[in-house]
Amino acid sequence: MISSVRRLIALVSGTVGLLTVAWSSYLVVMSAAAMRARRAGRHHTKLADTPSTRFRVLVPAHNESALIAETMSALAAIDYPADLFEVHVVADNCTDDTAAIVRSHGFDAHERDDLANPGKGPALGWLLDCLPTWPDTTSAFVLIDADTIVDPDLLAVFDARLGAGDDVVQGYYAVRDAGAGGNIAFRAAALAVRHYVRPLGRTELGGSSGLYGNGMAFRESVARANPWSDHLVEDIEMAQRLLLDGGRVGFAPDAVVQAEMPVTLADATTQNQRWEAGRGQVAQAFVPPLVGAAIRRDHRRRWPYVDAIFDLTLPPITSLMAVTGLTASVFRLSARGRVGSLGFGLGTAAGLAQIAHILGALRMVRAPLAVYRALLLAPIHMVWKVILLIRLALKRGPDGWIRTTRNEESL
Fold first, then answer.
1. 89 closest CA partner among 4, 147, 152
2. β-pairing, 216-219 with 168-175?
3. CATH number at residue 224
4. What is the residue-averaged pLDDT of the chain?
5. What pLDDT does 9 receive?
6. 410 pLDDT higher than 80
7. Predicted TM-score of the model (pTM)
């Protein structure tokens, strides 16, 4: 009886361990591809001598009076011809002076009252319906969150990328005040991995960058043909729909936007619950058709779909590290002899690959020292993330969109 239980434990831990090795191998491939892109200079965009794209910057906002002024000031400072871009803010179910602040900066505020249908996706869809279609083919929308500081070259980079043939472009969505330490610095490390290295590696290998909800540019015809949904992670969902329809998302590492991240884990809980619950729903809905698309394509066109499957199923890296260590240890204790040693060795190699992936990302984005120090908080984040995922598995997560608490509101 004891030996049968032991074999079962070895089988389960070994199977999960092989998955962690596969995911870790994928991270190694992404790091190597990102480094190749950087060595070739493909992380910089050659700007056009004469910009030609007409942009409308769309900003969804719900009670953002604490931060919207900084966002508007950053947009006003963009280095792009003033006659080629407009800023439109949807003040969605606001009870504060968000709209007045926007108008004081000379930009358009559109006030929406629909308490029965809140959220970023519905708000953006409503705003698109408010805006007339521009007839020329060089028009595009850019989506910026209301707590975001944008790089002055943002539109110039998007203009060059769209001019080079991309229909949808994701910029580098980073963290404001990354050197502040604590949870903010830890999130900066996570986004360096998720929002810089992986999309750079994915596009270098011919895949689709994916969409991350902030700092995105869409050719107008594409945006109007693919409206935002009310999904918890409408950006990830849209990226899969675009891919299955034959489109791909480009990546512009030098189109930088920096958004506020919660100071404490308590304030980050709602945001992370929404992200992880939404990712799980998207994975359930889109992995089967992505597998089907990969099977139907010839080998030269299969990679974008295989890549998307890996990206959708890959656990958060803190959870991956925790599961890798746990399964390697359990397998070593439950499996006998050389097999147990081999499994433990593979698990150790997978863990080292994950650490190298993180450190390589921090080096690529030139992260401040505080971000490296924040990695010491990894054990705390591992426990917190695992508990969060367990709660979601038990259906104790959000059913709909919930706004993330701003730092000023939690003081």
1. 147
2. antiparallel
3. 3.90.550.10
4. 89
5. 86
6. no
7. 0.89
Which amino acid makes up residue 49? D
> What is the spatial distance between Cα 252 and Cα 153, in angstroms, rounded to a whole number?
11
Q: Tell me which residue has tokens 């279609």.
A: 133
What is residue 411's predicted lDDT score, i.e. its pLDDT?
Answer: 37
Contact 252, 245 (CB under 8 A): no
The three-state secondary structure class of 134 is coil
Structural domains counted in the chain: 1
Contact 241, 289 (CB under 8 A): no
Residue 409: which pLDDT band, with cuts at 50, 70 and 90?
very low
Distance, in Å, from the CA atom of 400 to the CA atom of 118, rounded to the nearest integer, reads: 9
CB 126 within 8 A of CB 112: yes
* Structure tokens that stand for 46 in this block: 């050659």
Contact 102, 90 (CB under 8 A): no
Question: Phi/psi at 236 (nearest 5 deg)?
Answer: -65, -40
**Residue 110 class from Cβ within 10 Å (0-12 exposed, 13-18 middle, 19+ buried)?**
middle
Interval 48-91: pLDDT, tens: 999 999 999 999 999 999 899 999 999 999 999 999 999 999 99
Range of the domain at 32: 1-411
- Strands 139-143 vs 216-219: parallel, antiparallel or unpaired: antiparallel
* Cα separation, 222 vs 171, whole angstroms: 17
Helix (H, G, I), strand (E, B) or coil at 110: strand
Q: What is the pLDDT of residue 400?
A: 53
**Strand 139-143 to 168-175 pairing:** unpaired
How far, in Å, CA of 42 to CA of 203, rounded? 10
pLDDT tens-place string over residues 378-398: 788 777 777 777 777 776 555
The amino acid sitting at 266 is A
Name the strand (E) or helix (H) holding 330. Answer: helix 317-334
DSSP readout, 161-224? Answer: HHHTT-SEEEEEEEETTGGG-HHHHHHHHHHHIIIIIHHHHHHHTT------SSSEEEEHHHHH
CA distance 314 to 335: 26
Q: What is the pLDDT of residues 30-46, one digit of tens each?
A: 999 999 999 999 999 99
Amino acid at residue number 347: G
